[in-house]
Amino acid sequence: MRDVLLATVPGVLVMTWFFGPGTLINLVLGAAVALALEYGVMALRGRDPRVAISDLSVLVTSTLLCIALPPYAPWWLIVIGVVTAVLLGKQVFGGLGYNPFNPAMVGYVVLLISFPIQMSSWALPRGLETVPGLSEGLQRVFSPGSIDALTGATPLDLLRQNTGLLFEDLMTSRPELSGWAGLGWFEVNLAFLLGGLWLLYRRVFTWHAPIAMLAALGLCALMGYDGGSSQSGGSALFHLFSGASMFAAFFIITDPVSSAVSNRGRLIFGALIGLLVYLIRTLGNYPDAVAFAVLILNFCAPFIDHYTQPTVYGTRKPTP
Questions:
Q1: Digit-coded pLDDT (tens) for 45-74
Q2: Less packed terminus of the chain by CB within 10 Å, N or C?
Q3: DSSP character for 149?
Q4: Which residues pair with 123 in a beta bridge?
């Protein structure tokens, strides 16, 4: 848990550079709510709350959720998301190790379906010199009346809304679309990729699910890219380095509780998530489909495990 928290630092720093201190405010508020909830629930269940808090699992849940939320999200949105993630995504099933779904994604999907306007109000990436300061960021979180003038569509939103521009023309039509995957978004994904590679080096998880997801997403994008027409689904680099692609590959789908168990199962699990992310991005109503894809495959994980568990040494594989 500690290594996962440390691995998010590069991505959070890059997000702060391009979007301002909104993500840091999200993280602090979310952590305070999550720790209070975990402490209270464990006390009500008659267990030592200090032990539950010391494993840092609830901080991982709140951190992953708050990173996925738009910077300068209203304070009540953060509170509702963390309460949903901790209570409905984790504690209602019995706590750490018993949750069938990724708790952070449970909270995220509830917010996305319930509050679509607030969840799509992403700050424009502008760089550290022009982003709001800490005091102004706090004012926008707790008094969000003036945030509309500073928000805009993400690159995935703009691609989904494109009706007439060639893909190359679209990527040069706005300053925030500069680069391979949009200003700031490529750098944020690269930072989370570096954090994920460090986790692989630390052997926090195996390579199977992340690589399978990214390979499937990239392959689908290659197959769906028609050279850049207005109907194009976007290039492979665009899909791999925009939205929450790298963040999901190394920090979300690698949850050991809600994902597949065997290495072969993790390959299938990750590849199907990559496929669903691409299909929902290009054909569905939600530009970034990571949370939906993850929850659907969380539901399928026991089925995948049933057919991919290795045979125990000295026994025969049962015939169907």
A1: 888 888 878 888 999 999 999 999 998 888
A2: C
A3: G
A4: 151
